[in-house]
């Protein structure tokens, strides 16, 4: 099997149920989800397998769920079954609660950074936010898209923030507070 097909040489790409321009908003949105998935993979490569076993397990699950969500967005068939459901969001909320309890108390906004893996998780968080914004625009432009993907991305950015803070805490790297911030979290 050849990796290249040459079918995209004219600026079109295949989605489930048709072909569209490569700059189609649907393609842009699931392309950003793919970028997000790549940053999560990079963060995973930076995490110690023993110290971060729980977070690595979470992130691997998230990578599969992102593929599900991207596939759901790429599907324009009349009859379709979406893979992403409410269950992963509920599981992620439970993990966010656990991670939030482990991290130091949060009073001010923090600057992205710290340990390399935490910094990469912060990058992934911002890409998740961009994907979510694109998803909202897509939902306004196209009525027939799975709204659960937007909800998932919203929760995922919270998870990535919590995970980045725990990575820093376990490595004993202090989060850097935004010094001009008032105490906004109580």
From TrEMBL:
Pathway this chain belongs to: Cofactor biosynthesis; adenosylcobalamin biosynthesis; adenosylcobalamin from cob(II)yrinate a,c-diamide: step 2/7
EC number: 2.5.1.17
Catalytic function, reaction form: 2 cob(II)alamin + reduced [electron-transfer flavoprotein] + 2 ATP = 2 adenosylcob(III)alamin + 2 triphosphate + oxidized [electron-transfer flavoprotein] + 3 H(+); 2 cob(II)yrinate a,c diamide + reduced [electron-transfer flavoprotein] + 2 ATP = 2 adenosylcob(III)yrinate a,c-diamide + 2 triphosphate + oxidized [electron-transfer flavoprotein] + 3 H(+)
Highest taxon in the source lineage: Bacteria
Enzyme class: transferase
Keyword field: ATP-binding, Cobalamin biosynthesis, Nucleotide-binding, Transferase
Keyword Nucleotide-binding in record: yes
Matching InterPro entries: CblAdoTrfase-like (IPR016030), CblAdoTrfase-like_sf (IPR036451), PduO-typ (IPR029499)
Any Pfam family: Cob_adeno_trans
Boundaries of every Cobalamin adenosyltransferase-like domain copy: 3-167
PANTHER family in alphabetical order: CORRINOID ADENOSYLTRANSFERASE, CORRINOID ADENOSYLTRANSFERASE MMAB
Family the UniProt entry places it in: Belongs to the Cob(I)alamin adenosyltransferase family.
Protein's recorded name: Corrinoid adenosyltransferase
Protein's organism: Lysinibacillus contaminans
Upper lineage: Bacteria, Bacillati, Bacillota, Bacilli, Bacillales
């Amino acid at each position: 099997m050849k990796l290249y097909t040459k079918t995209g040489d004219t600026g079109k790409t295949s989605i489930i149920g048709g072909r569209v321009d490569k700059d189609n908003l649907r393609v842009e949105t699931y392309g950003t989800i793919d970028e997000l998935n790549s940053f999560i993979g990079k963060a995973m490569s930076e995490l110690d397998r023993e110290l971060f076993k729980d977070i690595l397990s979470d992130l691997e699950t998230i990578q599969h769920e992102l593929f599900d969500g991207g596939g759901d967005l790429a599907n324009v068939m009349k009859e379709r079954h979406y893979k992403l459901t409410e269950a992963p969001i509920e599981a992620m909320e439970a993990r966010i609660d656990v991670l939030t309890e482990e991290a130091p108390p949060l009073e001010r906004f923090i600057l992205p950074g710290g340990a390399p893996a935490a910094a990469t998780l912060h990058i992934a968080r911002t890409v998740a936010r961009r994907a979510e914004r694109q998803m909202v625009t897509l939902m306004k432009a196209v009525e027939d898209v799975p709204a659960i993907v937007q909800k998932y991305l919203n929760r995922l950015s919270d998870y990535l923030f919590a995970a980045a803070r725990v990575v820093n805490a376990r490595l004993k790297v202090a989060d850097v507070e935004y010094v001009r911030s008032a105490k906004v979290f109580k």
